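Predict both folds.
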Amino acid sequence: MKYGLFFGDSITYGEYDGVFGGWVDIVKRYALQKYNEGSNELILFNLGIGGETTEGLIKRISHEMEARNSSEGNVVFISYGANDLAIKEGAAMVSPERFKTNILTAVQKAKQYAEDIYLISILPVAEKIDGVTVASGKLRSTAAILKYNEILKETAHENKITYLDFYSGFVDDKEVLLSGDGVHPNEKGYGIMAEMAIPIIERYL
């Protein structure tokens, strides 16, 4: 039995999807349906916390993994940045430099327990909120998303782990894949994410 651990924010948690519960829950149900007695069992844990940045991740990742450490190996997905890069009161919630340090720290901690680690890209935002301060007081921009995604891509390459590029799967159709707030996917968007993730999950089933 292997464990799959999904760390992230509200997009990992599945916020704004009242139908399917988000992409991780879709993948979780798929893994449960594919399991047959005598085959490999993969137990998936959705560890997304709404509003969390990498500052929260590095405080809890070791505890979460130690509590769910499979003797047959863990598969870890790390999906952060949408909150880190948000400008609030004139500054990014987590600077690019600090973001890189935090992601690297998380990867190093995960390697103590995981056989495979995947870094997940930040999704694009809708045109209507690109560079606009929204009701929560946060401002997100395409320029920042591209910058933080490059950090994720570089960190994945430097540490010989996989970069899962949801951004490219969304960017051309983002206006129909994002919910009304322009940040979280809608049901269709979460479905696209699940479709991109399921081939990875199948490797462990």
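Second protein follows, with its predicted structure tokens after the sequence.
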Amino acid sequence: MTRILAAGDLFIRAAHLRRSLEQALDGRAVEIRELEFPWPDAPFGRVAEVDEASGTEDQLIEALQGVTAIATQLAPLTERVLAESPDLRLIAVSRGGPTNVNLEAARAHGVMVANVPGRNGVSTAEMTVGLSLALLRRIPLSHNTLLSHEWRGEFYRYGEVGGEIAGSTIGLLGAGAVGAHVARVFAAMGADVVVFDPYLPAGVLDGVVRRVDTVEEVFRAADLVSVHARLTPETEHLVDAERLAMMRPGSRLVNAARGGLVDYDAVADAIESGHLAGAAFDVYPEEPVDFGHRIFALAAAGHDIVLTPHIAGASRETTDRAADGVAEEIRRYLAGEPLLHPLVEFAQGAAR
């Protein structure tokens, strides 16, 4: 009998993975084992050579004995785990960027790997729009005044009121699964959407956005810049002091992608000087965050800064898409069909 490990956590529960596996594998004789990691109650982190993982190598090795395929989000699939799990043939990881999987080790050990790109695209896009609206309309600040039992009039003063999406220029750095959805929403709201994405295929988003050839053109044009690039050595600090200085005074910045894409010290400087009107962040250079960073002090002092704890992708629909996505990859593998989203793939029979 084929054994499958549903290695969940407190967001994508083992029970969610089991349900999707049972639906996808209806009628096939399989044994589904369950394991659950403590994230997000306990932060994920580095385990051996992989990042953003939860749990330990030892508990995963024990659970993988006799297992053909694993469905997971955060299991630490390291060189050691792969070496000591001789029956494993497929890793189905429910993330777009599976940094918790040692892909080279998987390739060396003949283990196939598939992922679920775009699982949280809609959720993150909607959160980005929400952060932008909260920032533009000063929702958190005005909300807090009511909690303090204050009815303050300055939010209706001309110099204090926020702005609208309609008629503004929104700049997007990246137009993948998240950025493309954000672009369509903002365009539907009446914004002029400017996009820099050298990987965006010709014709995609035509009639929705204006494409530009350089990052700098986005900063010079936009009233609000939203970051949607993947973090790589080339994109680290894509938003830096020099580019922030290119923005018009009173512009705003939103980042719900990755903390490393933005120089947060430069943003603090720009807000403190008054050059930026405000910023909204769901991601940070360090997570859990360094509460000593000036961003938090500026927010506490009443600057227009909206902060959330990396929850943009956290929706129940994201959980469903993730669980269904890994279950479909496992179904395909067991049926001898090509994987939908292979990261490591071998010809049938060539895996270990």
